[in-house]
Amino acid sequence: MDDVASRKRARVDSNPVKRETIDSDIRLVVYQNHPTLYHEDGNTIFSSASTLFCVHRSVVSKNSPVLRALLEEPERKTLRGMRHFEMEETAEDLEALLNVIYEGSRIDIPNITVESAPLLSSILRMCTKYKIDRPCNDIIRRFRSEWPHKLADHDAKTAALHEQQSRAAPYIVQNGVQVPNPQYDPNANEEDLIIHPGSVIALLRDCGYDTSEVLTPLFYALSRGTWQFGGAAIGHHIAPLSHADIERLIIGIERIRSQHADFVTQVPLLLAVPAPPHKLECGAGVKAYWQSLAPSMLKATNGSRQPVEDWGSIISQARSRRIISGHGACDGCERQVLAEMEKRRATLWADMAKHFEL
Fold first, then answer.
1. Which of 167, 200, 223, 347 could tie 188 with a disulfide, CB 3.0–4.6 Å?
2. Which of 116, 141, 166 is the last residue of a domain?
3. Average pLDDT over residues 264-290
């Protein structure tokens, strides 16, 4: 037994490098230069894990006050004869930041799809942290363009989406028969890859861009399409949201439905219309129209959860087809009813922030 113990100790003692590594916790790192962001004429090195970025101090300091303060700190480590800063970010995030800096804080913002979203998210997080305002403002404007705060802009975006979807369908149904779509465009389905609003909400929360104007249309978009509350994070899912925002979403959906139901069940009151050809039968005609409208409106919104779009569709049909006058109302009363419907639709939109407690 003594001989065996002696031989074991001898093997450990014969490897002083290994023992020194364990005792001193020396970390051996094999560095590799970043393929495009290691500038041979640079004078400062940033590292993320084993990836080295050699940058120009003047360029980096000019674009970011946070990095400028970091580079002014005394007594830093050196590597390859240059000051060396070990960064806490991943190599991918640091790459995104430095690319923005070297491109003059300008970014070419692509369509917001599941493919471009990771890069945009990385840029927004890094530029927010290091206080580079221009890229942040550009990305927020792009988000606000995709999910507008004003109702008129929302309607325009919805109309453009419907047009794109109509061109993306290879077949349409006419008179109950499926026929080729004459507007079919195989390249028009890019919108199917749009990033999910829940991911954008979580990103904006993390970066501090959480005003009601920015978040409200995103919550409404999320309420229109979210059906999955558990399981794998695929499709329309709320997994990125905080517990507080999940609660806001659920409560907001119920409040929107309740307000919509109130509007649908309240027949518009007619004001006096002295000018001819006003008729005594106008009130009965408006009531008859409303009684035909209410059941379908309630049923549709219980299924689709898009009351703003439902009201817009009904108003458009009533105006173009003169449906209200067809029930016996005069032109003046028809205009009153349409104006009241527009008002209720605008109120639904304006109250969204309150419904979601934003």
1. 167
2. 141
3. 80
Interatomic CA distance for residues 339 and 325, integer angstroms = 14
Rounded distance between C-alpha atoms, residue 274 and residue 282, angstroms = 12
Judge whether 311 and 341 are in contact, CB under 8 Å.
Answer: yes
The answer to the question of residue 176 being in a domain is: no
**Where do the DSSP E strands lie in the chain?**
32-38, 44-48, 51-55, 77-79, 82-86, 171-174, 177-180
Q: For residue 71, what is the domain's CATH number?
A: 3.30.710.10
> What is the residue-averaged pLDDT of the chain?
81
Residue 195, pLDDT > 90, answer no
What local confidence, expressed as pLDDT, does residue 13 receive?
37
Beta strands in 114-216 (DSSP E): 171-174, 177-180
Domain final residue pick, 124, 141, 158: 141
CA pair distance 36, 27, nearest whole angstrom: 26
| Residue carrying the six token digits 């106008």 | 282
> What values do phi and psi take at 81, rounded to 5?
80, 10
Note down the domain range covering 47. Answer: 32-141
Quick one: angle between helices 307-321 and 282-304, nearest 10?
Answer: 140
Angle at 330 between CA 316 and CA 275, to 5 degrees: 125
CB 56: neighbour CB atoms within 10 A? 15
**Which residues have C-beta within 8 Å of that of residue 355, sequence separation ≥ 6?**
251, 252, 255, 256, 259
- The amino acid occupying position 227 is W
Residues above pLDDT 90, as percent of the chain: 49
Per-residue pLDDT of 28-58, as tens digits, reads 668 899 999 999 999 999 999 999 999 999 9
Pick from 234, 163, 173, 170: nearest CA to 198: 234
> Does the pLDDT value for residue 328 go beyond 90?
no
How sure is the predictor about 355, in pLDDT bands with cuts at 50, 70 and 90?
very high
Beta carbons within 10 angstroms of residue 314's beta carbon:
18
